[in-house]
């Protein structure tokens, strides 16, 4: 059998009235509760999305404020420290040329090298905090990668590059080539250091779903710990022995990639090592973008 509910109410004197009225009230309450539960669930989903968006916005604001404070500090440090460091480095180099004793000459050269390292560190911090505006121009992808590889000692023989095979012509990107090459170079250097005897693979492809340019740099080393995954882009973080790394390469790479409107992340590699993934949504030269819109 079945029960049919209608808008019409049975007459009060009808025999079925005393049975239908309670049943109708029960069904009405159940339907109303179901509708309210659906509205509550939708509201909860909306609130969860809003909270995630708010947390992401707060994280970006906190990072921006931290970078602003770092920029103010390093701007002063670059001026106040680089001047005396330049004097120390220059005098130590000059002293080294006048010393006859080999041990004394080595000591003077170490002083000059340490002063140079400290000056480079202050400059890198300042660049992380205040990188300035990019000066973009159309650059062949092969030239960009060659520039990055040449900047890393020992990388020429150990880097394998895979470019998209479905391109009708050379892949050209609209970037600030020296800066993006430096960012990629820092990623290559990190991969080289964690895989001292292995091959570093660079894979470039265009994401079919949204047209992003994706550059993957993978090593075949031991991979990154969970701690390194969380803190790899923090300034001065390093899991290498003290003195082996300043911990500024990856933060600088992240900053320079973000300068191009892109993003960078680390994840486990396909072969067990680590993989850096660079995504660039706005990489096409202006002429190519205009041609795409016209089509």
UniProtKB/TrEMBL annotation:
Task: Give the record's GO CC terms.
Answer: plasma membrane
Give the record's keywords alphabetically. Cell membrane, Coiled coil, Kinase, Membrane, Phosphoprotein, Transferase, Two-component regulatory system, Virulence
**Topology in the membrane?**
Multi-pass membrane protein
Compartment annotation: Cell membrane
Show the GO MF annotations: phosphorelay sensor kinase activity
Record-annotated Histidine kinase domain positions: 76-284
Instruction: State the coiled-coil residue ranges.
Output: 40-67
Q: Which InterPro entries match?
A: 2C_sensor_his_kinase (IPR050980), HATPase_C_sf (IPR036890), HATPase_dom (IPR003594), His_kinase_dom (IPR005467), HisK_dim/P_dom (IPR003661), HisK_dim/P_sf (IPR036097), Sig_transdc_His_kin-like_C (IPR004358)
Q: Which SUPFAM superfamilies does this chain map to?
A: ATPase domain of HSP90 chaperone/DNA topoisomerase II/histidine kinase, Homodimeric domain of signal transducing histidine kinase
The answer to whether UniProt assigns keyword Transferase to this entry is yes
Broadest EC class assigned to this enzyme? transferase
Under catalytic activity, the entry for this protein gives:
ATP + protein L-histidine = ADP + protein N-phospho-L-histidine
The EC number(s) attached to this protein equal 2.7.13.3
Protein name from the UniProt record: histidine kinase
Give the species.
hydrothermal vent metagenome
Q: What is the lineage of its organism?
A: unclassified sequences, metagenomes, ecological metagenomes
């Amino acid at each position: 059998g079945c029960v049919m509910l209608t808008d019409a109410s049975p007459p009060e004197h009808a025999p079925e009235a005393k049975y239908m009225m309670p049943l109708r009230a029960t069904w009405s309450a159940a339907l109303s509760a179901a509708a309210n539960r659906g509205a509550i669930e939708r509201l909860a989903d909306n609130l969860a999305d809003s909270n995630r968006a708010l947390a992401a916005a707060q994280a970006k604001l906190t990072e921006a404020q931290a970078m602003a404070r770092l920029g103010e500090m390093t701007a002063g440090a670059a001026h106040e420290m680089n001047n005396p460091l330049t004097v120390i480095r220059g005098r130590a180099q000059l002293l080294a040329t006048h010393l006859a004793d080999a041990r004394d000459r080595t000591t003077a050269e170490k002083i000059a090298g340490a002063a140079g390292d400290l000056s480079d560190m202050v400059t890198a911090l300042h660049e992380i905090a205040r990188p300035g505006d990019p000066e973009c121009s159309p650059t062949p992808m092969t030239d960009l990668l060659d520039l990055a590889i040449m900047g890393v000692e020992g990388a020429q023989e150990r880097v394998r590059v895979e470019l998209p095979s479905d391109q009708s012509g050379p892949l050209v990107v609209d970037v600030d080539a020296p800066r993006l090459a430096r960012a990629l170079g820092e990623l290559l250097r990190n991969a080289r250091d964690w895989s001292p005897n292995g091959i570093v693979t660079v894979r470039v492809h265009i994401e079919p779903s949204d047209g992003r340019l994706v550059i993957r740099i993978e090593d075949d080393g031991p991979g990154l710990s969970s701690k390194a995954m969380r803190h790899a882009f923090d300034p001065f973080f390093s899991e290498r022995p003290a003195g082996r790394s300043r911990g500024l390469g990856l933060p600088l790479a992240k900053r320079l990639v973000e300068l191009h409107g892109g993003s960078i992340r680390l994840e486990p590699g396909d072969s067990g090592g680590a993989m850096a993934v660079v995504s660039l949504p706005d990489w096409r030269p202006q002429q190519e973008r205009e041609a795409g819109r016209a089509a």
